[in-house]
């Protein structure tokens, strides 16, 4: 089972292995089985997977990059199914090994035969996998698979994990086993406290692109990487899985994650859409920086603020990207009013996170996109900022003098000590003589001054109050 940290950084990518087949044969179930956790959304509805999803996988001593693809169909032109097919075919062209799945229970269908004929001409290393072979239900389909001309089929059950040893044997013909000394990067050096800050700095920055449906998230990802890496189109809700794209920006490793659009919970009815939203929320929890994409025509709708609120609640660094700003170019008065409304709503909704960076862009024509990544890395640096304890306590004494804490039962509340215990986001502990009496207003004052005086704009700041221990309490108990 892979951990969350494995998602953020994997030292072993290895050969590319693509899982292909017609819709609803169990490709995503096999993908999740080999990756070791639920990474792709699985549903009985055909055509759930639309993009090509990648993840590091391991089977015994074989390590490789696994690709989950959309169901192959014979559609042509510019229909969504045709665009999905082109992405699948491109994944096949870049893969060293292809796992061709059929549904043994359903038997070999004409679409299987058509795809097999296409694979014989285009792909070199194809492993035929007859999925859903548990019990006797798939025996007929397994026998029919011999006629596809792709060699001996492997009887398999992705749902139950049957046939993994046979699949390992087939993959071992094309993939070299890992040397024994290549153990997990943090297996010995990383204790219960997790990786050190130096180790975290070497990992890719995990940048999640989130927002409502059809605001241009996938178009922005393609614009940033400079090629068509994720599926786009006029249809709302094309992206269903969170799609990771490895990228470099000015020599810095970045893992871009394109996510499904998030509608209001009251409008989420289908189980499939609920799974997509849950996948997006998981991505936000793991991200370093989240870019919330808004539509310039409808800035700061209630759902936009809800998405930004989830990012802040999870303690992630936040950048706002207002897409389609070219639509505002003709009416400067309307544009100025829209920008002012956006800033006012952000300030009113998120008083605890002031001065969130806002970048106007057009993902379609590239206008303003060059300003987005500098804002991302600047916010990321602030999110990782640490304030020295001596400096912090000199500041605390100054705050106590300039704006004394309130009285509680006729006694002055004392601010004893303050220290930063965490970064990502900046997290502080404040030792207070009577924490329950300090009040939210004074704590908010301290956080706002902390943000202004130490240069922490646009990121969540967390302050936990603690009451100092009484050094004489143990003596009193002994008496």
TrEMBL record:
InterPro entries to which the protein is assigned, alphabetical: AAA+_ATPase (IPR003593), G_ENGA (IPR031166), GTP-bd (IPR006073), GTPase_Der (IPR016484), KH_dom-like (IPR032859), KH_dom-like_a/b (IPR015946), P-loop_NTPase (IPR027417), Small_GTP-bd (IPR005225)
Domain EngA-type G: 15-179, 205-384
Single biological process term from Gene Ontology: ribosome biogenesis
Record carries keyword Zinc-finger: no
SUPFAM superfamilies: P-loop containing nucleoside triphosphate hydrolases (SSF52540)
Superkingdom of this protein's organism: Bacteria
Ligand binding (GTP 2): 211-218, 258-262, 323-326
Keywords, sorted A to Z: GTP-binding, Nucleotide-binding, Repeat, Ribosome biogenesis
MF GO annotations: GTP binding
Chain ranges passing through the membrane: none
Binding site for GTP 1: 21-28, 68-72, 131-134
Protein family according to the UniProt entry: Belongs to the TRAFAC class TrmE-Era-EngA-EngB-Septin-like GTPase superfamily. EngA (Der) GTPase family.
Cross-referenced HAMAP family: GTPase_Der
Quaternary data: Associates with the 50S ribosomal subunit.
Summary of the function given for this chain in its UniProt record: GTPase that plays an essential role in the late steps of ribosome biogenesis.
Record-given protein name: GTPase Der
Gene behind this protein: der
